[in-house]
Amino acid sequence: MTITAVIHEQQAVPQPKQHGKPGGLLRHTNIVTGVVLGLILAVVTYVIGGLLVPWGTENSNFLQVGESALVAATYTAWVIGFMIGIGAFAGPIRWWLGHDLTHADAQYLAGKGQGRGKYWKYTTDHKVVGIQYLVMAMVLLGLGGLLAMLIRTELGVTWAEVFDPNFYNSIIGTHGIVMVIAMIIVVAGPLGNFIMPLMIGARDMAFPRLNALSFWLLFAAVPPLASNLLLGGIRDGWTVYQPLGTQAPVGMVGYQICIITFAFSTGIAGVNLITTIVTMRARGMTWNRVPIFVIGILSAAIMGLVWFPMYQYSQVLALSDFAFGSAFFIPQNGGSVWLYENLFWLLGHPEVYVIVIPATAALMELMVVFLRKPLFSYKIAIAGFAGVVGISSLVWVHHMYMTGWSPAAGYPFMLSTELISIPFGFLVLVMLGTIWRGKVWTRLPMMCVYAMIWNKIVGGITGVYLSDVPVDQYMHGGMFVVAHFHFMLMGAGLFGAMGAIAYWFPKMTGRMLNERIGSIGFWVSFFAFQLTFGSMFVAGLQGQPRRVLQFDNAFDVSNWLSTIGAYAIGIGMLIFLYAVITSWRSNVIAPANPWGAKTLEWQTATPVPLENFPVLPVVTSDPYGYGVPDPYLTIEKQLTDEDQDAMVGAR
Amino acid sequence: MSELTTNAQALVPRSATTGEPVTTTARRNRLGIWMCIVSDATGTLALLVAYAYLWSLNVNDAWAPPKDTWADPLPFWLIWVGAVVAALAMWWAVAGIRAGRTSQFITGSILASVVALVTFIGQIVQLSTFPFDITDGAYASTTFWLCIATALHLSVVGFLTSAMIGRFRAGRITREDHSHARFVAMWMTWVCVAVFLGAFFATTMNASPNTNSPTFGTFQE
Amino acid sequence: MSIVDERSAPADQPEEPTNRPDATHRLREWLARPYVRPILTMFVVFCLLVIPIGWLVVFFMNMSGAPASDVMSEIEKTILVFTIVSAPLMAITLTIIVYSLVGWGRVTGDEPPMQESPAIRSNATGTYLWIGATSLLAAFLVIWGLLALANITASSYGSIPSNQQPNAAKAIDINVTGQQWVWTFEYPDQGKISSDVLVVPIDTPIYFNVTSVDVIHSFWVVELGVKIDANPGAITNTGVTPNKLGTFNIRCAELCGMHHAYMETQIQVVTQDQFDSWVREMGGKRTV
Asked: Is C6 a domain residue?
């Protein structure tokens, strides 16, 4: 007699053999076992490896080759140990043995009946993973923001060196990469995992266990990166151009292991998101009824999935140079610095869109709700996303105009880079067109939309400047570039993410966001942001190079203003964070659909039950059926009718 | 519930965890595998780009290994043949389970596992017997990494093919629900392509076409 | 009779009248809407803001010194043109944001507003206008950029070695070596003299071969608009013809380690006579 289970409307689904209690080994694993096992394995590797490594070998920069290899092995052991400890390998081993999950197992893994403990475990429920990503993103943003304050302190104190130059260089590198990771996950992580499956009417992601895996890989990747500051730091900016990277102390290994691990995390998340969106939409949700946010997540996932391995391999090869003395990026031994730059920017540029597009799409999704108006020209929006995804892989060389790699490449890549501004302009058109003539409901998420459009247009236009080779000949490597990409990544990405999180906060946490305090934080940050990076544009125009800690007195004033602005951003962000944390703890309970929105995630209960929908929804139209008939068009029609009458009369 | 519906449900095997027909989950998983292959293809492309780019530049005249001791081409192709044989065995096994010939499936899986294991060992042997070290110039480094990538690919293949045996014994691969076996064969087909590209680059592109690269740190070409 | 004939209207009948009034009528009706004139006015005002902004851009760029070569003049002109051309785009965005906050009405409160906005799902005219305008702007900027690039490549000698230039006799070759954290300039044709300050004669084409002996640096002569990476293991080339006497800044524009910020030196543009005597002082040969 086969054992069966009742799964929703299916009465009797045959089950595989139940091995042990539901959940099996994962009943006993959580973050504590993960950290403990990771640390044990790391220490054991360090001790045993220390005995085995042939000490004394030095590379061309007189660094101990053995030490780098040992540190690399230790970090790898940490990652593997942590993943064993959290229970990530239980899945593959069960698969190998043929002990597939039963329904009861799957329910346990999704966190059924585990209270708050499920947030500290290898939990597969997409809502749990979404919350985990949200907290992780906030932690990383906090760390990156703290480092940003240190950078601005150094640059504001124009009369002295506050930090040791090497430490300063480590701060800028760590700030950069921490913020890039945070911005990659801040929308696609929490909202792509929590909201997207709800939005398409699915019960979970396509591969729930891979979902947990992608988060915990990210978690395992962060300690190596954070610890680099204790091990001498990465003194090379977030791009870690080689061969400067090979001169760094062993902290560099932390960066490389972090990126390699994070790339696995992103790739797995990308596979999961794409498969979920393509195969798990609710019945009736055809491609022209998909909410635009889902399209944005899909675009970002495609770019991340296709291009992230380039970055990953650039770090694998750099680690190989650093720890084993191979010659990929070391010119004395036949390596090429341009190879690194190409591999790096092949992801490096699409990654900008991986950050900006989900935020843009999220704000498109929410602005219709606050304007009570359909999205303007859904098809143009799709075309915009498709165009950006398509062209994004053909523009990377604009980061390398001044490398001398191929002066002739400036012509085609100037063309492709300025071409991408056209689909990007589509996205602006959609947002402006949706605002056009709308009566706006002035809530915090909508304010973020205005902020984001402004920042995006400033960032976009300065981006067009930089896409031009002659202009870049002056601006490249200068503060203008820094101001430009902060307008793009922070101005559009982070303010967009703040709006998106404010909008979906009631659904994710079950409580309303305190908008009074939140708005104060938001507006302080916004205006301070304009001051900070506006004066950074000025410093760039004056000719200040980036990544310097001392400079001509000519740049003093703009740097002072920039530093004042940066501190104010910090204060604003802390106020916003305070609003988020206090609201999460104790604000009023949110109703299921506080905004009166039409997308599916608002149609289910809050807090969202384990498998999202008691009965899977069937979609019959797109979610933008807001609005009343255009009064002017009615008048026009009447007018023409009258005109016709007059014509008939005249005849 | 009438007996009729029970029978009808039994005809369509359903996923134990989500209750969907296995054909639905199989389609979904197949897309996932395709995505993994795309991602892995970009990684392989990165290695091939590194090889071809360093080959064409010959920076500091340091592409070639000391005394031009290029790697022996034969092992590269033997390893590729191993990967192909393993993939063919797996496809043969899939054809067997499709037709309900379980013994053909188990024979094919075992054959694929054994061949994959032997090929993996061959790859390790090749890695340890190169006439140069990983530090001996750009050719040595890139060739080492192409072979390391092949070794990683083959170890994954070994894990997947050997799992087929255990999964079959546990009754998880049947005539009606054999999608996992097909995914393994799909992955192995991609591995054949990746191994071929690596072998092709490492065996055909040896001496660099650029003979007048500038000497490091000087202005002499 | 074939099917086609049945479907097509007989030629002598007039076209079926449509409800849609002609374009002029529609434009007039559109202009008569209460929100249109304020928006157009705001748009024009915001467009005019480009005048002070453009002036500021040039002012800031010239703060550390006016352009000292044709290349830099070209760059500055390009930046100014880009500022002017992108002004309408900035202006329309700002206009719609501001007007939306003040003009089309606002709703406050905790409950979703009952009153809905007009359901405009698309607008062919607006869309075509936007796509046409942005494409035209982009096309203009691309063409301007390509021409400017060709221009500065020609005036900086681009990647063509100096000995292939028509006026090669006059040009001066300089080998630039970046090294943590100093620049070294070697004059191969002037008896291989080397210096850590760049001295060049005015109105003479200078041709730079650039390399590095450790990590990547970027050779940036600020007021002359020269920038090229100094890559270890490769030689990159660029050039410039200074047209202004004076002392200008050379900076490193690529993070190169601890003292990146201090990797600065100066370029002195001097007369030919001063240059010759400087070469003699340094123990080199006279210029050929």
From this structure: no
| pLDDT at site B5 | 46
Contacts of C235 in chain B (CB under 8 A): 214, 219, 221
Question: C221 in a domain, yes or no?
Answer: yes
The H or E element containing residue C199 is strand C198-201
Beta bridge partners of C212: C178, C232
C177 contacts in B (CB within 8 Å)? 217
Does the pLDDT value for residue C168 go beyond 60? no
Report yes or no: C48 at the B interface, CB cutoff 8 Å: no
Give A106-109's long-range contacts (Cβ < 8 A, gap of 24+): A106/A208, A106/B16, A106/B17, A106/B18, A107/A22, A107/A610, A108/A22, A108/A23, A108/A26, A108/A27, A109/A23, A109/A26, A109/A208, A109/A209, A109/A212
CATH entry 1.10.260.40 includes domain A101-113+123-602: no
pLDDT digits (tens, 9 = 90+) for B173-183: 998 889 999 99
Tell me what ipTM this predicted complex has. Answer: 0.93
What is the rounded distance in angstroms from the CA atom of residue C46 to the CA atom of residue C49? Answer: 5
Residue type, A204: D
State the best of B58, B61, B216 to mutate against chain C, taking most chain C CBs within 10 Å: B216
- A chain contacts of residue B137, beta-carbon cutoff 8 Å: 327, 333-334
The C-alpha of B54 sits at a distance from chain C's nearest C-alpha, in angstroms, of 12
Delimit the domains of chain B by residue range: 23-204
- Strand, coil or helix: what is A403? helix
State yes or no: cis peptide before C181, omega within 30 of 0: yes
| CATH superfamily of domain region B23-204 | Cytochrome c oxidase, subunit III, four-helix bundle (1.20.120.80)
CB of A226 less than 8 A from some CB of C: no
Low-confidence stretches of chain A (pLDDT beneath 70): 1-2, 54-65, 634-651
* Beta-carbon contacts below 8 Å between A and C: 305
Cβ atoms within 10 Å, residue A589: 10
**DSSP β-ladder status, C217-221 and C246-252:** antiparallel
Q: Does A378 touch chain C (CB under 8 A)?
A: yes
d(CA A119, CA A127): 10
Answer whether residue B26 shows pLDDT above 90.
Answer: yes
Q: At B187, is the pLDDT very low, low, confident or very high (cuts 50, 70, 90)?
A: very high
pLDDT tens figures, B35-82: 999 999 999 999 999 999 999 999 988 999 988 889 999 999 999 999
